[in-house]
Amino acid sequence: MAGVEVRLPAARERLAQGLPRGAGEGGRDLVAPGDTITTDPGYMRGHGTYMGNEKLVASVAGVVDRVNKLVCVKALKTRYNGEVGDIVVGRITEVQQKRWKVETNSRLDSVLLLSSMNLPGGELRRRSAEDELAMRDYLQEGDLISAEVQAVFSDGAVSLHTRSLKYGKLAQGVLVQVSPSLVKRQKTHFHDLPCGASVILGNNGFIWIYPTPGQKDEEAGGFVTNLEPVPLPDREVISRLRNCILALVAQKLMLYDTSIVYCYEASLSHQIKDLLKAEVMEEVVLQTRQRLLELEG
Amino acid sequence: MRGSRSKALHDQALVNCQYSMATFSTGDRKRRPHGDRQSSEMTLHLKQTFEAAILTQLYPRSQIDIYVQILQADGGNYCASVNAATLAVIDAGIPMRDYVCACSAGFIEETPLADLNYVEEVTGGPQLALALLPKSDQIALLEMNARLHEDHLERIIEAASKACKDVYAVLDQVVREHLQEVTALLGK
């Protein structure tokens, strides 16, 4: 037991001490709950605000966002607010009549209808009573899926679909849960990284890291999962990626393919387990930040 | 929505609080496996306080859980719970009317005292707990555990609300520093 390192909890260091202070202040308003944003009655009330005594008051702590006459406050951290077309990773919590309930980090459970997924045997197959009985064979409680948001209901609940070969049940890999606001919106959220693993960056903050599949057509939105053992080098890459993502999240850097690849490359000089130490995280992410800034020019 | 779905409210969110004290939190070690009368009362008070502050009508059919555990009790348990839970709710991005700040006050030897510690609490004088929405000066909860002459009430409430506003200043500063830090890091 010589190599075991024991640490006591320590006060978190202020992260932004080293960063230029002015960056956050120039022209952007930060508000806390109860702050009056404006007394002008001409503005429209958006998310994160409410009307009190004919004043527009913030109800969350965050950044004021003005679009013409609409005033919103964006909170730093919230649960996931679904938008049509988003890619999400979720976990099945319940099997019901013709639908699955899916936990997607939103306020209410999402639904995946039996009719909005590809079943084996062609696109245009009628969903029969047998299909309904066999629902648990396709997806069980606890299974992870990737899906796309098909519709958002009026109460904010989300309806999902997996009508593409890209989506479906997830087999072997690692799930990392982060704040949805840290996932950058991009054209594609499925990435095959050059380091030998793939990631799905769900818009809901669920990130799935898995070994890059051998043949592309094999994944085929299927509900058959490949349970062959993953070779050790692949597993090491996956755990390193996971620790890199945790480091990026701890230092509040947006997550997208480039930032993850850069962080992975910066981390190569450290052991995988050392990446969980606060000072190593800081160093690695600082290098990543630097490279991203150079890239932007 | 956890647990029984019948409890879900169709027009607003359900605020669910749970207050507990660790066995080692007080001087005498006491096991409270399912909570005692005192902590279920405290749970109710917390629930009332936050139902007054959180904009629950925005999230129908959902539930907001607030779990508080006291690790070391030295007076002002309710107030510390409220102040901590306010920060937690703000951090979670749940919309609130305003911060809720709480402070206790007592009346000992003709002097109002704000923020009582354990020794002052057990001396048995009248004490009151006040939860305030400081910006609008609205009272979310006011509780008094003994009889007090009406003439003194104003002074003691005055002392408590002054302390609440001082707590507000501290909380607000922390929230703003955090906001500034995170927006600077995100660099949006």
What is the annotated CATH architecture of chain B? 2-Layer Sandwich
Helix-and-strand structural type of chain A: alpha+beta
- What is the end-to-end distance of chain A? 48 Å
**How many β-strand runs of chain B?**
6
What oligomeric state do the depicted chains represent? heterodimer
CATH architecture of one domain in chain A: Beta Barrel
Radius of gyration of chain B, rounded? 18 Å
Number of strands of chain A: 17
Q: Order of strands in the sheet with the most strands of chain A?
A: 8-9-10-12-11
- Helical content of chain A (DSSP H or I, runs of 4+): 10-25%
Residue fraction in strands of chain B: 15-25%
Number of helices of chain B: 4
Shape of chain B: globular
Cα-atom radius of gyration of chain A: 22 Å
Can you tell me about this structure?
The complex is a heterodimer of chains A (297) and B (188). Chain A has 297 residues and is an alpha+beta fold. Chain A has a domain at 31-75: OB fold (Dihydrolipoamide Acetyltransferase, E2P) (Beta Barrel), CATH 2.40.50. Helices cover 21% and strands 28% of the residues of chain A. Chain A has helices at residues 129-133, 135-138, 216-219, 232-250, 257-267, 278-296; strands at 30-31, 36-38, 44-45, 49-52, 55-58, 62-67, 70-75, 87-96, 99-103, 110-117, 144-152, 158-162, 168-169, 174-177, 190-192, 197-201, 206-211. A five-stranded mixed beta barrel of chain A has the order 8-9-10-12-11. A four-stranded mixed sheet of chain A has the order 1-6-7-3, with no helix packed on it. In chain A, α4 (232-250) packs across α5. Chain A is flat. The termini of chain A are far apart. The model of chain A is unreliable at 22-27 (pLDDT under 50). With 188 residues, chain B is of the alpha+beta class. Chain B has a single domain, classed as 2-Layer Sandwich (Ribosomal Protein S5, domain 2). Chain B contains four helices and six strands. In chain B, β5 (127-133) and β6 form a beta hairpin. In chain B, α1 packs across α2. The interface between A and B is large, with 38 and 34 residues.
